[in-house]
Recover the amino acids of this structure.
């Protein structure tokens, strides 16, 4: 027997979706604004973070503007959100690839691959979005236009058609998503392992200067190792919800949909904090603010001077690992 969400439940999910997407929109917009205003951030390393934030910004925007009571807007929201959310997690794979190619393979040609990155990200996003649109009757589904593919109370689809659409949605979004998560995790594992091996070799050779640099790099890379968890945390409940919809079409669970909508909507905020708010961005902000802060207020922000005196760390710094035989 089908169990549908009540109107009150759907209003709650819509509010959660709008609130979470708004936070992601603000966070992603802040990174895009920093890249646009601060010339010192316009390097290839941070350019990839800019593209990631831009995708998150548009994903969050279209996720907010969709109105499931209006067919056209719901239709537009569904495909634009799908396109830019796919682009978002694909940009994380280009960041992981760049780190691996720079640190592990010691290649310096990553900037020459920018055009290939764009073709890979935008092309793949377009292909999976077009595939998802095949056979769609422009109907909105579930609690909000893009996230659910189950039946609504007034618009019941046949079981076969409903299951087939859920399968297409799963294959065109969640399969590439978990492929990206596995790739990112494996890549960061290799990068961290190599740097840790280089650090142990430096300790054995009593190279104190290198040990100091390695400790700094290891701290940064260990933080990078948590980045795949952002995608896992953002989409784990969504994946479970899609599998549940596939197994039991028409049987909706409110708490699962609540976690699905909330965590997915916060992906842009998580990415902006993890990838965007690095030492270079903080230093650029502190330098601008200090132009307007009275000196008596600067003592209340000791972190600004400390960050300014430290070497700038980029999220995609070209770490130089010494080859030691």
């Amino acid at each position: 027997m089908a169990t549908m969400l009540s109107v009150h439940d759907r209003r709650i999910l819509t509010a959660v979706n709008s609130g979470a997407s708004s936070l992601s929109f603000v966070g992603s917009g802040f990174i895009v604004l920093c890249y646009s205003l601060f010339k010192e951030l316009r390097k290839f390393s941070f350019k990839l973070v800019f593209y990631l934030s831009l995708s998150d910004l548009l994903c969050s925007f279209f996720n907010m503007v969709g109105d499931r009571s209006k067919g056209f807007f719901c239709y537009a929201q569904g495909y634009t959100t799908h396109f830019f959310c796919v682009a978002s997690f694909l940009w994380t794979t280009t960041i992981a690839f760049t780190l691996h190619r720079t640190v592990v393979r010691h290649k310096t040609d990553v900037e020459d691959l920018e055009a290939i990155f764009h073709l890979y990200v935008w092309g793949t996003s377009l292909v999976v979005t077009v595939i998802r649109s095949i056979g769609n009757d422009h109907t909105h589904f579930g609690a909000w236009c893009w996230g659910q593919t189950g039946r609504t109370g007034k618009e019941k689809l046949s079981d076969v058609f409903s299951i087939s659409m859920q399968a297409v949605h799963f294959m065109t979004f969640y399969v590439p998503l978990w492929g990206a998560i596995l790739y990112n995790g494996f890549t960061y594992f290799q990068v961290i392992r190599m740097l840790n091996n280089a650090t142990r070799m430096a300790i054995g050779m009593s190279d104190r200067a290198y040990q100091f640099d390695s400790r700094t790099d290891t701290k940064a890379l260990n933080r990078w190792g948590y980045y795949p968890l952002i995608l896992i945390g953002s989409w784990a409940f969504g994946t479970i919800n899609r599998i549940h919809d596939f197994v039991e079409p028409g049987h909706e669970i409110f708490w699962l949909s609540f976690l699905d909508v909330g965590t997915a909507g916060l992906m842009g905020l998580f990415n902006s904090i993890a990838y965007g708010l690095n030492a270079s961005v903080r230093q650029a902000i502190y330098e601008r603010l200090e132009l307007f802060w009275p000196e008596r207020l600067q003592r209340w922000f000791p972190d600004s001077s400390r960050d300014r005196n430290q070497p700038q760390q980029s999220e995609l710094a070209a770490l130089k690992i010494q080859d030691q035989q």
Remarks:
- The radius of gyration is 22 Å.
- Residues 13 and 258 are 6 Å apart (CA to CA).
